[in-house]
Write a structure and sequence with these properties.
Blueprint (H helix, E strand, L loop, with lengths): L210 E9 L5 E5 L2 E5 L7 E9 L3 E11 L25 H18 L8 H9 L24 H12 L5 E2 L14 E10 L5 E9 L6 E3 L8 H17 L13 E8 L6 E7 L7 H11 L3 E8 L11 E7 L2 E6 L2 E6 L8 H15 L6 E5 L5 H7 L4 E6 L2 H13 L5 E5 L2 H10 L6 E4 L8 H10 L3 E6 L2 H13 L2 E9 L9 E8 L3
Parallel strand pairs: 3-5, 6-21, 11-12, 16-17, 16-19, 17-18, 19-20
Antiparallel strand pairs: 1-2, 1-4, 2-3, 4-5, 7-8, 7-10, 8-9, 10-11, 12-13, 14-15, 20-22, 21-22
Helix pairs in contact: 1-2, 1-11, 4-5, 9-10
Protein name: 23S rRNA (Uracil-C(5))-methyltransferase RlmCD
Pfam family, one: tRNA_U5-meth_tr
Family: Belongs to the class I-like SAM-binding methyltransferase superfamily. RNA M5U methyltransferase family.
């Protein structure tokens, strides 16, 4: 699911955030985070060796799951033909390491990100090297930065505040300023300068600064058009499949290049005018210029491409799906079928139909990937805003006035704004009011370069079904000048306010929240409901940002679990117990495990709040706690996993295969790691029966999925 962020970064709007290691619930982004273009640190592991065995500081960048990259190799991906998912190196050869078969290479510059809208296209510069492809166009080649992993380095392992990495939920950056194990490209571990030979670009069908016509054949990971010029690939922001465009070539590599859109010669029938007035500047949304029906088709195809390319899984009707991915703007089977008329409709996959999907999967007929479940009104859906505060640009390097908004694409320049079309209106009003009050009271904005100033972020949370509002002021210090006046103004001007909190974060970091939170006025929580379950939401609680689609998502998970009231269920990565409490309504007993203790405290409180007693929560890593439960005699009939973007830990997958539940339900916010993990489970004796994409984050490139798996011998 999409709670894969860990307070990391000021993506005030957008994708998914994480639970577990993701406490703030920042969304699409809330991003396994992407690595910012231009960073050059090679990934290492906490122990000082890359997971693949590359020594900390060596040129070999170990892959996340340890498959193939050896120490001392530079692992430069040679970018295969888009759509193949190959990295150009033979499996197992030096430098060919992949992230468990995802095609993502160690040492890639600007690995695929999960955008939280408002953060500059998920952290990768628009048109930068390394906006990895997910939807069958292959991962962009020769990227030069990979995540570091190590204690105290933030979720993606890079030291908070260092240059070069954007995280999943925000933009914690790391890279050249990274600590142990971080080595600049072009240097050996001993510090000797290594000269990288210039790539031979002779013989390419295009030249830098040349104006050429390109045919757009697909959509890239960050919403850019994938163009072809005499077989050569160009990535073009703003272009759509099916279009013919005039572009200017900006940058070239051996296998691909980047170009600027100059003119649309033939427009896609799916092209629309983006309603947001700053869409071309803000990186929060990537697909507003694509009709919503076409967005839903694209997201289904994204899932299909990854299942086939990475998971090597057969998809029912795949021939039609693949042909549709070549020119999605020209139509595809099931076009508008993905749009649901309301949040609760189209959820059930009942009896005979589901049995048919199971028979098809087992008989080799392929996995059923259903049309994406969309929203009847795909606007104003976010219940939380996380807005970075800074200074407007001024002459002679002086600080301008206080501003707050979203980051321009690929930068930390804040675009001041008071309205976001995917944000709930009350959150917009809260942020605009607090900015105005801070200016009037002389409260200084935080300057991330000098580490001076006070107000870093304004966070607003809204209960869709209760109307409760919480304001969190994230500050660079404990003392707020004229605090009582500020609190009084907020109470006076914001109807529905229930809680005003201060979070103190004095670290040099782009992680949003610090460790200390105190209540300035009101309660320490607000409340909201999903279905029949009531949740208490604190300042840093993970809570899904799109409550309407969350109910759809959880309804699918319940259907795939197939509960009758007699089952024992384990919920791995349970967070604050959202899915666990839904499952407990239909199961005999539910066990939830989560590595973040604060989330488990929230889960237990939510269970008490709803009077649910057949659920037990434990703090710890799922791959550690679940085997302990097994030794205690707990034998699950169903295991539900809802991991962050990086997917399931390999040890957890091994544990699932050892415990052999009858069914596995996988909730995913990352189609590539989903496909990787499904391949492991399929090889271990399970079959993937059905996949249901759910559009949790309209107008972004992100998609959630619920997957039902069955043990073959049941």
């Amino acid at each position: 699911m999409s709670r894969k962020s860990n307070n990391k970064g000021p993506r005030p709007q957008g994708k998914a955030q994480g639970k577990g290691r993701r406490q703030d619930g920042s969304a699409p982004g809330e991003s396994g985070a992407g690595l910012r273009a231009g960073a050059r640190a090679m990934r290492t592991a906490a122990s000082g060796t890359g997971r693949s065995g590359a020594k900390s500081g060596s040129r070999g960048a170990g892959m996340e799951s340890g498959t193939g990259a050896k120490a001392g190799t530079r692992a430069m991906r040679t970018a295969a033909e888009p759509g193949t998912g190959r990295n150009g190196a033979k499996p197992g050869s030096r430098g060919a390491g992949t992230e468990s078969g995802t095609g993502a290479k160690a040492g890639t510059r600007a690995m695929r990100t999960a955008a939280e809208p408002g953060t500059g296209r998920s952290g990768a510069k628009s048109g930068s090297r390394g906006a990895g492809m997910e939807s069958g166009a292959g991962w962009k080649a020769e990227a030069q930065t990979a995540r570091t992993a190590g204690p105290g380095t933030g979720r993606n392992g890079a030291k908070p505040g260092s240059r070069g990495v954007r995280t999943e939920s925000g933009d914690t950056r790391a890279g050249q300023a990274g600590g142990a194990g971080s080595v600049a490209f072009g240097q050996s571990a001993a510090g000797r300068k290594l000269v990288r030979p210039a790539a031979d670009l002779s013989g390419l069908p295009v030249a830098k600064n040349e104006e050429v016509e390109a045919d757009i054949v697909g959509i890239g990971h960050e919403g850019e058009g994938v163009g072809r010029v005499n077989g050569f690939t160009l990535f073009i922001q703003g272009a759509l499949p099916g279009e013919r465009v005039l572009v200017k070539v900006l940058k070239l590599k051996k296998q691909y290049g980047y170009a600027k859109l100059l003119r649309i010669i033939k427009a896609s029938p799916d092209r629309i005018k983006a309603p947001c007035p700053i869409y071309s500047q803000c990186g929060g949304c990537q697909l507003q210029h694509l009709s919503y029906e076409a967005q839903l088709r694209f997201k289904r195809q994204l899932v299909v491409d990854n299942l086939e390319r990475i998971g090597k899984l057969r998809v029912a009707g795949a021939a039609e799906a693949v042909s549709g991915s070549v020119a999605r703007g020209q139509g595809q089977a099931g076009a508008a079928e993905g749009v649901q008329s309301d949040a609760g409709s189209g959820i059930a996959v009942e009896g005979q139909e589901q049995a048919g999907a199971m028979d098809s999967a087992i008989s080799g007929g392929g996995i059923l990937v259903r049309p994406t479940l969309g929203m009847s009104d795909p606007w104003r859906y976010r219940n939380k805003a996380q807005v970075p505060i800074g200074f407007a640009a001024a002459a002679d390097g002086e600080e301008g006035g206080l501003v707050g908004g979203f980051y321009a694409q690929g930068s930390h320049r804040i675009i001041d704004m008071d309205e976001c079309l995917i944000q709930q209106e009350n959150n917009d009003r809260v942020v605009a009011a607090v900015k105005r009050m801070a200016r009037e009271l002389g409260i200084r904005a935080y300057n991330e370069e000098t580490h001076k100033g006070l107000l870093r972020h304004v966070v607003a949370r809204y209960g869709f079904n209760t109307g409760d509002i919480m304001v969190v002021l994230v500050t660079n210090g404990g003392d707020i000048p004229r605090r009582d006046e500020l609190v009084g103004l907020i109470r006076e001007e914001i109807p529905g306010i229930k809680s005003i909190c201060q979070n103190i974060n004095t670290d040099r970091t782009n992680v949003i929240f610090g460790d200390r939170t105190r209540v300035l006025w009101g309660d320490d929580v607000i409340y909201d409901t999903i279905g029949d379950i009531r949740f208490a939401i604190s300042a840093r609680s993970f809570y899904q940002v799109n409550p309407v689609q969350t109910e759809v998502l959880y309804g699918q998970a319940l259907n795939f679990a197939g509960l009758t009231g007699e089952e024992t269920v384990i919920d791995a990565y349970c967070g604050i117990g959202t899915i666990s409490l839904f499952l407990a309504q239909r199961a005999r007993q539910v066990y939830g495990v989560e590595i973040v203790g604060e989330a488990i405290d929230d889960a237990r409180r939510n269970a008490r709040l709803n009077g649910i007693r057949n659920v037990q929560f434990e703090t710890g890593a799922a791959e550690v706690v679940i085997p302990e439960w097994r030794r205690e005699g707990i034998a699950p009939d169903v295991i539900v996993v809802d991991p962050p973007r990086k997917g399931c830990d390999g040890a957890l997958l091994d544990t699932i295969l050892e415990m052999r539940p009858s069914r596995v339900v996988y909730v995913s916010c990352n189609p590539s790691t989903l496909a990787r993990d499904l391949r492991v489970l399929e090889d271990g004796g399970y079959t993937t029966v059905e996949v249901q994409p759910v559009d949790m984050f309209p107008h972004t490139v992100h998609v959630e999925c619920v997957i039902g798996m069955q043990r073959i011998d049941t």
